[in-house]
Design a protein that fits this description.
Elements (H helix, E strand, L loop, with lengths): L1 H25 L5 E5 L6 H17 L3 E5 L6 H8 L7 E5 L2 H8 L11 E16 L8 H10 L5 E4 L3 H11 L4 E4 L3 H9 L5 E5 H9 L4 E5 L24 E9 L4 H14 L3 H9 L3 E2 L4 H21 L2 H7 L2
Parallel strand pairs: 1-2, 1-3, 5-6, 5-7
Antiparallel strand pairs: 3-9, 4-7, 4-8, 4-9, 4-10
C-alpha cells in the first residue's frame, strides 16, 4: 500500500510539473492585461501604450492597457501584486511603491516581495526650468542666486515635495517651494511669472521648453538628455543629485520563470527597436532594458538609498507628510 501511495504521489508531482511546463510553453494563449498605475493621456501612458503595441507583436497576442491610477501608483500596483501569477496580468510599474513604503502613502503590500522584476523599459529625468525673464539662464546662475538670497526665489511642482526638498538639501539652497495639485498649473504659473521656477518631469515641460515659454536650467540625471542636449546636469555643476523615474515590467511574485524569461526577452528586443527608441526620446525619456536580476538588484539598492535618505534628512519625512 505504501508503495502504491508513493507511486501515486510521484505521478501527481510529474503531472503538476508537466502541466506548469506546458502552460509556460503555450504562453500566451489569450490576451495579456498590462496594468498602468497612471491616468490615460500623459507621457507615461504614451510610453506604456507604445510598449504594449510592440509587446503584442512580440507575443502574438493582444496586450490590453488597463489604467489604474490613484494613491501614488499604489492602487494599480496592488491590483497586480494580488493577481494570479500566470503572466496574464503584468505591471508597467516603477519605484513609486518602494518610495511610498518609506515616505507614504503606505502600500498594503511589500513592494520588494510582491513582484517578480522582468526588465526596465525607460528612464525619465526631471528638469528645473524658469520663466524666460528670470534673472538666471542656467543651473550655475540659479544655484548662485539661490545661495546669495536664501528663501527669495520660488519653485513650483506637482506635489513633488520629496524630490524638491532633497534637491534643496543636496545643493545647499533655500527655495520657497509651492506645491500644486497638478503639473499643468505648476508650469502655467512659471510661464506667467507667478513663480520663479518649476520642477517637473521632462515630458511635462518639454513642449513649453521647445516653444520658448520656459528656459531649461538643469537636468536631474547624471547624463545630458538627447531631447535637451544643451541643458547641463546638476552633477556637472557639483551637486550630488542624480534622480530619475524608471518604468519597468513587473509580474506577480511566483510567476513561472519560463514566462518571466519570455517577457524579458520580448522587452529587451522592443527597447532597442529604432522607432521605439526615437518615440521615447522624443517625449524626453530614455529607452533602456535590463535583465530580471539587474532590475531586482536596482529595486533593492534604491530602497536602501531612500531608507538612508530618510534617516539622514528627517525633514523629508515631514515634507511628504504635509503634501
Amino acid at each position: 500500500m505504501a508503495t502504491v501511495r508513493a507511486y501515486g504521489i510521484a505521478l501527481l508531482a510529474v503531472a503538476t510539473l508537466w502541466s506548469g511546463s506546458a502552460s509556460a510553453h503555450d504562453y500566451p494563449d489569450h490576451p495579456v492585461r498590462l496594468v498602468v498605475p497612471y491616468p490615460p493621456g500623459g507621457s507615461t501612458d504614451l510610453i506604456a501604450r507604445l510598449y504594449a503595441e510592440k509587446l503584442s507583436k512580440e507575443l502574438g497576442q493582444a496586450v490590453v492597457v488597463d489604467n489604474r491610477p490613484g494613491a501614488a501608483t499604489n492602487i494599480g500596483s496592488e491590483a497586480v501584486a494580488r493577481a494570479k501569477p500566470d503572466g496574464y496580468t503584468i505591471l508597467f510599474g516603477g519605484g513609486g511603491p518602494t518610495i511610498n513604503a518609506i515616505f507614504g502613502p503606505m502600500p498594503s503590500f511589500d513592494p520588494l516581495a510582491a513582484f517578480a522584476p522582468i526588465s526596465l523599459i525607460a528612464r525619465v529625468p526631471f528638469v528645473v526650468a524658469a520663466n524666460p525673464k528670470a534673472p538666471f539662464s542656467n543651473i550655475k546662475e540659479f544655484l548662485a542666486a539661490a545661495r546669495s538670497a536664501p528663501g527669495k526665489y520660488s519653485i513650483s511642482s506637482a506635489q513633488l515635495n520629496l524630490y524638491v526638498e532633497l534637491l534643496k538639501n543636496r545643493a545647499g539652497i533655500r527655495l520657497l517651494h509651492i506645491p500644486y495639485k497638478g503639473g499643468a498649473q505648476a508650469a502655467t504659473d512659471a510661464i506667467a511669472g507667478q513663480v520663479d521656477s518649476v520642477y517637473a518631469l521632462v515630458p511635462v515641460l518639454l513642449p513649453h521648453l521647445q516653444a520658448g515659454k520656459l528656459k531649461a536650467l538643469g537636468i536631474t540625471s547624471n547624463k545630458r538628455l538627447e531631447a535637451l542636449p544643451a541643458t547641463p546636469t546638476f552633477v556637472e555643476n557639483g551637486v550630488d543629485y542624480d534622480i530619475t523615474i524608471w518604468y519597468g515590467l513587473l509580474a506577480p511574485a511566483g510567476t513561472p520563470k519560463p514566462i518571466l524569461n519570455r517577457l524579458a526577452a520580448a522587452t529587451q528586443s522592443i527597447v532597442v527597436e529604432s522607432d521605439f527608441v526615437q518615440k521615447v526620446n522624443a517625449v524626453g525619456a530614455v529607452a533602456i532594458a535590463s535583465q530580471p536580476g539587474e532590475l531586482s538588484a536596482q529595486m533593492r539598492a534604491e530602497n536602501a538609498t531612500w531608507q538612508t535618505v530618510a534617516r539622514t534628512i528627517p525633514a523629508l519625512l515631514q515634507s511628504t507628510a504635509n503634501k
